[in-house]
Amino acid sequence: MVIILIGKLVLGLALFLLGMEGVKDGFYKASGQRLEYLLKTLTNNIISSILTGIMVTMIIQSSSATTVIIISLVNANLLTLEQAFGVIMGANIGTTVTVQLISFRLEEYLWVIITLGIIFYLFYYLKKNRRLMYIGRGLLGFSILFIGLEILSNMIVNIQDLDIFIKTMTYLGARPLLGILIGVIVTAIIQSSSALTGIVVVLAKAGMVDLALAITLALGSNIGTCITAFIAAIGSSKVAKQTAWAHILFNIFGVIAVLPILSLFIEVISLTSEELARQIANAHTVFNLFNTLIVLPFRGIFIKFIRTVSSG
Question: Counting C-beta atoms within 10 Å of the first and last residue's C-beta, which end of the chain has fewer, N or C?
Answer without folding.
Answer: C
